[in-house]
Specification:
14 strands, elongated, mainly beta
Length: 249
């Protein structure tokens, strides 16, 4: 490979990385906390993940303001956050959190006095335990810097099939790499690949009749990477079950 070709590949790689949130440096924002000392109040949420402990996200989670939430497409993305410019309240070090919820705007309050998640502000409402790793509890709100980072997950991507015949609602969790699924497909043993539509959060919908067929899934994350999980559910699958596929490394 010639030097010119190598440089073009490197430049394109950097451009792609930055376009998807990686390699662009630190961005200023603010952070608060919610959910109580055990983070029980963070369960459920606008991404549809339900019990964040059993899903493997634990307490390293955040609700995103409108400017970051991207109407739910940011669910599953990972962010490194550090407290900055507040010597009284900041603690050293950084945290990595997964986007699992939405922090709604409060238009009745000004942006700098309670309306923390109002557009166009970039704001993280962290679980209390993870907030207290970068700032003192009494701070309430602190200035932070953040950047997108790859998600590191244990095991494969998980597909939980809910709904009923002709309404298959598939919750996609535990996604590595970029973490946020932007496209998803399903294939039965008697069908070709069929695009699913995003219903809400990371719940993806198919209106096909897939009962009695082995199922395969394909997902594409925001960085353009696609991974296929073939035949993860046998033909004897039933609604409410969770199946584990391949993983993005």
């Amino acid at each position: 490979m010639g030097l010119a070709s190598f440089l073009i590949i490197v430049i394109l790689g950097v451009m792609t990385s930055r376009a998807n949130g990686y390699g662009g440096g630190w961005v200023n924002a603010h952070a608060t906390f919610y959910g109580g000392g055990d983070a029980s109040g963070t369960m459920g949420g606008a991404c549809g993940y339900g019990n964040l402990y059993s899903q493997g996200y634990g307490t390293n989670t955040a609700a995103l303001s409108t400017a970051l939430f991207n109407n739910g497409l940011s669910c599953g993305a990972c962010f490194e956050i550090r407290c900055q410019n507040d010597g009284r309240w900041c603690l050293p070090g950084s945290i990595v959190v997964t986007a699992t919820n939405f922090c709604p705007p409060n238009n009745a309050l000004p942006n700098n006095a309670g309306g923390w998640c109002n557009p166009p502000q970039q704001h993280f409402d962290l679980s209390q335990p993870v907030f207290q790793r970068i700032a003192q509890y009494k701070a309430g709100i602190v200035p932070v810097a953040y950047r997108r980072v790859p998600c590191v997950r244990r095991g494969g991507i998980r597909f939980t099939i809910n709904g009923h015949s002709y309404f298959n609602l598939v919750l996609i969790t535990n996604v590595g790499g970029a973490g946020d699924v932007h496209s998803a497909w399903v294939k039965g043993s008697r069908t070709g690949w069929q695009a699913m539509s995003r219903n809400w959060g990371q719940n993806w919908q198919s209106n096909s009749y897939l009962n009695g067929q082995a199922l395969s899934f394909k997902v594409t994350t925001s960085d353009g990477r696609t991974i296929v999980s073939n035949n993860v559910a046998s033909a004897r699958w039933s609604f409410g079950q969770t199946f584990t596929g391949a993983q993005i490394r």
